[in-house]
């Protein structure tokens, strides 16, 4: 069984990211594999009852570990596909499938041989398990690794979204619209049902929410410091602790704004990067 840290490292494979697989997707894949393993154990139990034969849970779990091995072998197959060896695509996929199938059968035979020697009164020999796997599980391996190779080859690659911050914000106040350069904004505060956008010379009321307006601004320049306040980091002169987890942010024009403890770590990270 993988540790959580190992799973996180596996997700660093560029293929998984570009194909749109993140941690939640990988977790679902792991749970699905474990569910297959448990269903196979249940099948053994029902089959033994039907045939009126003995059912041994330990042996059933041992041989149904076949499914769990699909997790690491798929990742090895992906590595092989990404290696571009051989360079001809027509034989690259068949080689990756055949290699993954062979690796899976070898690992499974070795695992069953090792665990049975350590935990059972009798040992299943490597050759016996390998022959059993070929006769019983070969088609399963071919299906699994043909599917994974097909996903690698034909699943559409998700292109990362590039955010281009706007340079001018269109302010709506009733029927009036004003083009406001982003650089003129000092800070923004909630003023339900509007937001108040403060500049050096004027305050504008805009029909929007703080969350929506923050999505239009450059996150390296505008940071939320309170549930009701967004500040332009370029206008911040400094900040001072209130000794209770909160802070006072001092702007260059002398205005002081409340920095909530919930946003303090993010603010300090961006502020230090801007000041460097």
UniProtKB/TrEMBL annotation:
Keyword Membrane: yes
Superkingdom to which the source organism belongs: Bacteria
Signal peptide range in chain numbering: none
Transmembrane annotation, as ranges: 21-42, 62-81, 93-117, 137-155
GO molecular function (one): DNA binding
Residue ranges occupied by any HTH LytTR-type domain in the UniProt entry: 169-273
UniProt keyword annotations, A-Z: DNA-binding, Membrane, Transmembrane, Transmembrane helix
PANTHER family documented for this protein: STAGE 0 SPORULATION PROTEIN A HOMOLOG (PTHR37299:SF1), TRANSCRIPTIONAL REGULATOR-RELATED (PTHR37299)
Name this protein carries in UniProt: LytTR family DNA-binding domain-containing protein
């Amino acid at each position: 069984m993988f540790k959580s840290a190992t799973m996180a490292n596996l997700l660093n494979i560029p293929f998984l990211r570009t194909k749109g697989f993140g941690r939640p997707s990988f977790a679902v894949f792991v749970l699905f594999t474990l569910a297959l393993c448990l269903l196979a154990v249940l099948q053994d139990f029902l089959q033994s009852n039907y045939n009126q034969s003995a059912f041994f849970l330990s042996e059933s779990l041992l041989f149904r570990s076949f499914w769990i091995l699909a997790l690491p072998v798929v990742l090895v197959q992906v590595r092989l596909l990404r290696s571009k060896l051989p360079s001809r695509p027509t034989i690259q996929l068949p080689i990756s499938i055949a290699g993954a199938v062979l690796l899976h059968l070898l690992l499974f035979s070795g695992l069953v041989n090792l665990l049975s020697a350590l935990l059972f009164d009798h040992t299943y020999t490597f050759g016996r398990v390998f022959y059993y796997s070929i006769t019983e599980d070969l088609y399963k391996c071919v299906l699994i690794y043909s599917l994974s190779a097909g996903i690698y080859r034909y699943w559409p690659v998700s292109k990362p979204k590039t955010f281009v911050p706007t340079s001018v914000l269109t302010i709506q106040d009733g029927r009036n619209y004003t083009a406001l350069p982003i650089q003129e904004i000092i800070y923004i505060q909630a003023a339900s049902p509007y937001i108040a956008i403060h500049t050096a010379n004027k305050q504008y009321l805009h029909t929007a929410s703080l969350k929506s307006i923050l999505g239009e601004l450059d996150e390296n320049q505008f940071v939320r410091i309170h549930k009701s306040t967004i500040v332009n980091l370029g206008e911040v002169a400094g900040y001072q602790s209130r000794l209770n987890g909160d802070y006072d942010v001092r702007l260059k024009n002398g205005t002081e704004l409340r920095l909530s403890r919930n946003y303090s770590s993010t603010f300090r990270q961006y502020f230090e990067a801007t000041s460097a």
